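User: I'm putting together a teaching handout on how sequence relates to shape, and I'd like one worked example. Could you take Aspartyl-tRNA amidotransferase subunit B from Candidatus Pseudothioglobus singularis PS1, show the sequence you're using, and then write out its predicted structure as tokens right after it?

Assistant: Happy to. First the sequence, then the structure tokens directly below it.
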Amino acid sequence: MSKLKQLITDDMKLAMKAQDKPALKAIRMILGAIKQKEIDERIDLDDNQVMSVIQKMVKQRKDSISQFSDAGRTDLVEVEEAELLIINNYMPTQLSDDEIEAAVVKAISDTGADSMKDMGKLMGILKGQLDGKADMGQVSQLIKSKLS
């Protein structure tokens, strides 16, 4: 079992003992998504694959919050935000805007990128460096602004 999956399982046990129903619900949701992926692909996920599942869940929550906010459903926004807080506990520390910009500038200078044609190459390099530590949509926007 991956270390991250073991940590999540241990946290579920702690939430059960503490009778923390919101945390327990969110953690069970994470473990359910991990288990579903393991069953679908018939493998045991490693830490990187577990992190990928968690990143997907974070993105889903952010999208839901945006849609519920637009629809004026503050009750549902609060539920999604609470889940997002718990899910974010398993994400690596997020980089600051300045750190992200420094990484983008370095990648541009290292590759000699000078036009939008180089966007794919830059995203490939930065995804490896920043995956899980930064919102890749934000990174993409920053690259576009630097190259145009």
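A couple of points you could highlight for students: The domain at 97-147 is CATH 1.10.10.410 (Arc Repressor Mutant, subunit A). The helical segments are 3-18, 21-41, 47-70, 74-88, 97-111, 119-130, 136-147.
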